[in-house]
Amino acid sequence: MKNLLPAEQVFERHYRDSSADFWARFGGMPDVEGKRVLDFGCSTGGMVHRLMKAGASSAVGIDLSMRAIAYAKERMAEEWGDRVDIRCEDVIEADIEPVDFIVSQNTMEHVMPLKETLTAVVNLCKPGGEMYFGFSPLWHSPYGHHNYPKTRVPWWHLLKGHDVVLDAFRDRVGKDYATVQDAGFNCATPADFREAFHAQDVEVLSLRYNVGRSPVRTAISQAFRIPSVVPALEKYVTVGMYWHLRKK
Known about the structure:
By secondary structure, the protein is of the alpha/beta class. It has 2 domains: 7-138 and 185-247, Vaccinia Virus protein VP39 (Rossmann fold, 3-Layer(aba) Sandwich), CATH 3.40.50.150; 145-183, no CATH class. It has helices at 7-24, 46-53, 66-80, 114-122, 156-159, 163-173, 190-198, 215-224, 234-237; strands at 36-40, 58-63, 84-88, 99-105, 125-135, 202-209, 241-247. It has a 7-stranded mixed sheet with strand order 3-2-1-4-5-7-6, with helices on both faces. Strand 2, helix 3 (66-80) and strand 3 (84-88) form a beta-alpha-beta unit. Helix 1 (7-24) packs across helix 2 (46-53) and helix 4 packs parallel to helix 7 (190-198). The longest helix has 18 residues, at 7-24. The chain is globular. It starts with 6 loop residues before the first helix and ends with a strand.
């Protein structure tokens, strides 16, 4: 377990860096002043903290990682008291009062079952509320293995087979999984995600692919996606998807 980042370091990196990068991909963080918000896949609470700092009236964070949630509960209680509710549970079974705003960062590529889980999240949003889902890297993209194993060779996990991913988990963090799904990869394709999202009771305000941290990075990433004009190649060149939705 020595290769896992300490929870505090994960929190600080999420709050100060990755959550800011996330909102940059949407053109900036929306106004959450006075809103009740939900972070699906909250990890140690960095995004929840950012939303509260931005003026949210209250927040719910939900995740399945007991280790991350233990830290988030303690940190958010210190910072925000009972205005923040942190939960370690399956969102499909969760009893949560509807919220005005939902965000989910780098979580949807892990959830199973995909459509049912997404429906449960969307159902927690009030009519007219906005939702932001951004996630990468997708499984079939060059580094969809999430750095398990550490390699600069693109698509190594597809070229060599799932065992290289399972071996990396075993060697680096002591986890012995039977399948990559057990390790947390749903292996969904862009088409799978579109089917799941378009089945929801929502208005799609925008959907963008391969969005980078800056206009230059975005241009490069989207040029990489040009082969997706051939449907069979789309899943291999789609790194990320960024959805902005409004609940009907």
